[in-house]
Specification:
Elements (H helix, E strand, L loop, with lengths): L15 E9 L9 H11 L5 E2 L4 E5 L5 E6 L2 E4 L5 E5 L3 E6 L5 H18 L7 E10 L33 E8 L4 E11 L18 E12 L10 H22 L2 H8 L5
Antiparallel strand pairs: 1-7, 1-8, 2-5, 3-4, 5-6, 6-7, 8-11, 9-10, 10-11
Helix pairs in contact: 1-2, 2-3
């Protein structure tokens, strides 16, 4: 069951830089060809009308003749270059730098899954993942010590491990077993610069630099080794709903009311 918008706060100044969805599948021959991938594009072109550049791969037979010409994954972009849908022979990937709420992103995921299922027979589901990358920035924060009060103390525990030494940066990684088939990985740290590439295919809302706190949450499901589940948009969406829950829980636990009041709840000007 999807958590309703009324049950959670949508921050006007959220620190999200990138949100991604991926479903990995066994090889789909149709999506290894340009024509097969374009069949998905035709069903989604009202959402992502721009086809991004891709480099062809040419297989050469002995004697110099080309046996086959295949293209890499087909990337489709919206007109603002803030939403990307990529169709490849082993994965469908959605990325956005303009995320507001899960329901909206889920709607695009659903359309993509249905379009792919209509264009080809997908033989199964190997891995399904949601990834949220936050770059938290607070005016006045210059050192790792300055993050005290804004983040949960557990994320800052090593900053003052020894009073003689001042930590220039802090990084950590935790793996949470959510269920038998679901896991959520958290990467975090007080860092400098940025994580999301400003020169990537997607345009970012801002090209911030300097001190930031990384909250990178990767929530994913993997199929068992004994049996590969059949692919269906409904099954993928159900797993997606389950994967979203720990993402929200970990983020809200990681931050404090001070961060919410001083930064996240501020209207963007």
């Amino acid at each position: 069951m999807i958590e309703s918008v009324a049950d959670r706060e949508i921050y006007p100044n959220a620190p999200l830089k990138l949100v991604a969805f991926e479903v990995r599948v066994p090889h789909v021959p149709e999506f290894a060809t340009r024509e097969g991938a374009v069949a998905v594009y035709e069903r989604l072109r009202d959402v992502v009308p721009i086809i991004g550049p891709s480099q062809p791969t040419i297989e050469i037979q002995a004697g110099g003749s080309a046996s086959s010409i295949s293209s890499g994954p087909l990337r489709m972009l919206d007109r603002r270059r803030m939403l990307s849908i990529t169709v490849g022979p082993s994965a469908l990937v959605l990325e956005t730098t303009d995320y507001t709420r899960f329901e909206d992103f889920r709607g695009v995921i659903e359309r993509t899954l249905v379009a792919a299922a209509d264009a080809a027979e997908l033989p199964g589901m190997q891995r399904i993942g949601l990834r949220y990358i936050d770059e938290v920035r607070v005016p006045g924060v210059e050192t790792a010590l300055d993050w005290r009060g804004y983040l949960h103390p557990a994320l800052l525990a090593t900053i003052e491990l020894d009073g003689e030494f001042r930590a220039a940066s802090v990084q950590g990684h935790a793996e949470y077993r959510v269920s038998e088939r679901e896991q959520t990985n958290l990467r975090y740290g007080a860092l400098l610069g940025r994580v999301v590439d400003t020169a990537g295919p997607l345009r970012l809302k801002s090209a911030d630099d300097g001190p930031f706190f990384l909250i990178d949450i990767d929530s994913f499901w993997t199929a068992s080794e004994e049996e590969l589940p059949a692919f269906s948009p409904e099954a993928v969406l159900g797993i997606c709903d389950s994967l979203h829950r720990p993402v929200r829980t970990l983020f809200e636990t990681a931050i404090t009311d001070k961060l919410r009041d001083d930064v996240l709840r501020k209207e963007v000007r």
